[in-house]
Amino acid sequence: MKVDTSSGLGACWPWTGSLHTLGYGHVGIEGKLQKAHRVAWALANNDGMLPDMCVLHTCDNRRCCNPAHLWLGTQADNMADMKAKGRRKNIGLGSANGRAVLNEDDVQVIRQRLRSGESQQRIADAYGVYQTTISGIKIGRLWAHLPEA
After folding, report:
1. Which of 43, 57, 94, 141 lies most in the core, judged by the most C-beta atoms within 10 Å?
2. Is the pLDDT of residue 122 over 90?
3. What residues make up the domain containing 120?
4. Count of domains in the chain?
5. What is the DSSP string of 104-123?
6. What CATH number is associated with residue 37?
7. Are the C-beta atoms of residues 36 and 45 closer than 8 Å to each other?
8. This prediction's pTM
């Protein structure tokens, strides 16, 4: 592995080989690219077997391959760690999300139209969104933070 361990056992061991577009080191194993920190964890802890779980960094250094800085967790652990360390971008809810097509008033009207039995496709066409967006509003997957009017 292409790792710089010269800084000592307690410091990060940065990957010195090629990098993934997200900044993680990567290495080819059996014709497939693997993240270098996952391989480092597997070599140190699991007889070289890649884990089914996430390999997380205590140091938040994506290039770090020091097994002492790596720990196993679920995707939920990964998201909680990211939030706790302030790395999660708050994209905002509702119309505060810069990608939102609908606003809070639109969603309230859509809910009324759904209650009246209007078709999801007709509502979607009226607002320039996909039918799946209207379905998501109906079942509470989208805009769940917005209380009923």
Report:
1. 57
2. yes
3. 94-139
4. 2
5. HHHHHHHHHHHHTT--HHHH
6. 3.90.75.20
7. no
8. 0.58
pLDDT (0 to 100) of residue 96: 83
Residue 33, phi-psi category: left (phi > 0), alpha (psi -120 to 50), beta (remainder): beta
- Compute CA 148 distance to the chain's CA centroid, rounded to the nearest angstrom: 29
Bridge partners (DSSP) of residue 71 are 56
Calculate mean pLDDT across residues 67-81: 92
How far is it, in rounded angstroms, from Cα 148 to Cα 142?
13
Whole-number Å distance between alpha carbons of 50 and 44: 11
Inside any domain, residue 144: no
> Which residues, in sequence order, are CB contacts of 59 under 8 Å at separation 6+?
12, 66, 69
Percent of the chain whose predicted confidence (pLDDT) is above 90: 62
Q: What is the pLDDT of residues 123-135, one digit of tens each?
A: 999 999 999 999 9
Q: What kind and span of H or E run contains 35?
A: strand 32-35
Residue 146 placed within a domain: no
65 and 2 inside one domain: yes
Chain-centre distance for alpha carbon 31: 26
Closest CA to 68 of 9, 6, 2: 9
Cα distance between residue 51 and residue 141, in whole Å: 31
